[in-house]
């Protein structure tokens, strides 16, 4: 999965449980939003896989449709 820095759009590295942009020297945490209503999705962890659930009636959201955004830590 590509994680691009929201500031400089360079590829970020996964490091110690968060994403790190070497260019900006910033740490980001990944948030998943519903593509239909924009509300943060609930993460359901099962058997090593993660499913995303919209609590506003859109049900399970396929990872391909999830809108990821990155929040500065
Ligand atoms: Zn950056
Ligand atoms: Zn939704």
Walkthrough of the structure:
The structure is a single chain. The chain is mostly beta strands and 73 residues long. The chain has one domain: Ribbon (Rubredoxin-like). The chain is 0% helix and 48% strand. It has no helices and seven strands. The protein has strands at residues 13-15, 18-21, 26-33, 42-46, 49-54, 59-61, 67-72. It has a four-stranded antiparallel beta sheet, with no helix packed on it. A three-stranded antiparallel beta sheet has the order 4-5-6, with no helix packed on it. Strand 1 and strand 2 (18-21) form a beta hairpin. The chain is elongated. The model has no long low-confidence stretch (mean pLDDT 94). The chain binds zinc ion (2 copies). One zinc ion (ZN) binds at residues 34, 36-37, 39, 54, 56, 58.
Sum up the structure in keywords:
73 residues, mainly beta, Rubredoxin-like, 4-stranded antiparallel β-sheet, 3-stranded antiparallel β-sheet, 7 strands, 0% helix, elongated, binds zinc ion
């Amino acid at each position: 999965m590509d994680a691009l820095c929201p500031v400089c759009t360079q590829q970020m590295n996964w490091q110690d449980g968060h994403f790190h942009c070497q260019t900006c020297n910033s740490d980001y945490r990944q948030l998943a939003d519903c593509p239909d209503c924009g509300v943060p999705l609930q993460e359901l962890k099962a058997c090593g896989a993660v499913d995303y659930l919209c609590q506003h009636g859109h049900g399970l959201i396929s990872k391909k449709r999830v809108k990821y955004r990155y929040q500065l830590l």
